[in-house]
Amino acid sequence: MISDVSASLPWIRGRILIDGEIISKGYAMREVYSQCSEDGQQVLIGETPNVDANTFMLAVDSASKAWNRGQGNWALARMEERLNALSVLRGKMCAAREMVCRSLMWEIGKTWTDAQGEFDRTIQYIDDTVEEVKRLDRDSSRFQFVGGLMAQIRRAPLGVTLCMGPFNYPLNEVFTTLIPALVMGNTAVVKIPRYGQLLWDYLLEGFQDAFPPGVVNIINGAGRNTVGPAIRSGKIDVLAFIGSSSVANKIKSSHPNPHRLRSILGLDAKNPAILLPDANIDLAAAECVRGALSFNGQRCTALKMIFVHRSIAKTFNEALVRKVESLKCGMPWEPNVQLTPLPDTAKPAYLTDLIKDAISLGAVLANPEHGGKVEGTLFHPAVLTDVPLTAKIAIEEQFGPVIPVHTYDDLSEVEQYIVESQYGAQVSIFGHDPEVVGPLVDRLVNQVCRINLNTQCQRGPDVFPFTGRKSSAEGTLSVHDALRSFSIRSMVATKQDSVGKTVVRGILDKDSSRFLTTNFLL
Ligand code: G3H
User: Fold this and answer.
1) Which domain holds residue 176?
2) How confident is the model at residue 522 (pLDDT cuts 50, 70, 90)?
3) 168 in ligand 1 pocket by Cβ < 6 Å?
């Protein structure tokens, strides 16, 4: 298997899906390169669509036609029909598992193990969503009797959803918005992430077979040329975007009626780790390395700033360097490899600049032999200690394998950093004293949305809420919350008198409404 996946990737010429048709010509293409090669030279692995604004609008118009102002068949379909479609898609996806994972590995440098992990997690997400939908359906099949009224409250779709995921999870993070959006009855346009494009070609037939024309449209093109006109058209009702807050601001503000655009956003983060004086140093070092360097630090949930108390700083920094230096750097198909080439060719220069800036302000490169060494786009992880809080690396989200460590004397300095930060996703606390950890939790819980005790920051399990404060997120995603985020409660109410009861009873007996029904999914 390993030699297979390392051998090569069949050439892929990406296609798009619009209005139920898979289209392979009539638009510009651009070349796709893999950065994964032993000699550091990039390898041409395929071509991907690079559509213009007009073609992108065809996808938006198709989703808009399928939505048909809420009168489209998909929007009105019974939940059972939607789950059947999902099941067809799931089957087709599983058949394409190996090629999707290989594309992921080659294009974004995700290790073979992690690429398979991303795929399997996505299938699990679909399965968990199906179970959650059934629970929701069961719960909302009941009537509520309050104040002389009887009512049935269900969740209804919102409209045309634009799904834009990030390059670091180009499959999973698109699906965690697309699947709930679809299952709740919305129609969708998927704009494929900047890297991680080719895998989508293996899924097009699955989407085509599973969903009615126009319900899902899959397309690609430079965001700055295509997304602006799409949003300005006013035809997008829901924006599901995982990316930077500056791009989110631009997109949101270009909608002609911003209040009509529901936004579910996963944005910037600068998750700190705080090592208290009684932290278990080995455990903290291991978690910080995993937290900071999994997938080369290219995770919104990565640990991006470490605060260590002066009393343990020397021992911790040494343990951290030892662990970082023990990691294997190489190609993503190699067994036990942990650091791999970055997909973005501009990234090494940016990371190098962050290191230089920090050193110029007094930071120390604690692993000078390998830290920051660049081969192609393979960036050897760098540990920077004594990082001043004015350094760029203490402020900007590095999204790469550089670990900044700041030594503190008083916890108030760390808390001030967190309070003043524009980010508010997660934090990790390493320590044990309940008299310190308890009150610290209380003070941080209004700054971030997840506090991890003696463990790294992470999104999973996907049933947990994934959200953030300030510029880190808008809305909440989890298997359960996403169904809420992509829908709105709508209700039917009537008086609890004989007229009300007779009309409702008649509808239920004749099973004449798909909304007003006490039937539920098993
Ligand atoms: O990049 C953001 C992802 O949602 C992180 O997910 O913590 O499971 O790697 P993860």
Assistant:
1) 53-266
2) confident
3) yes
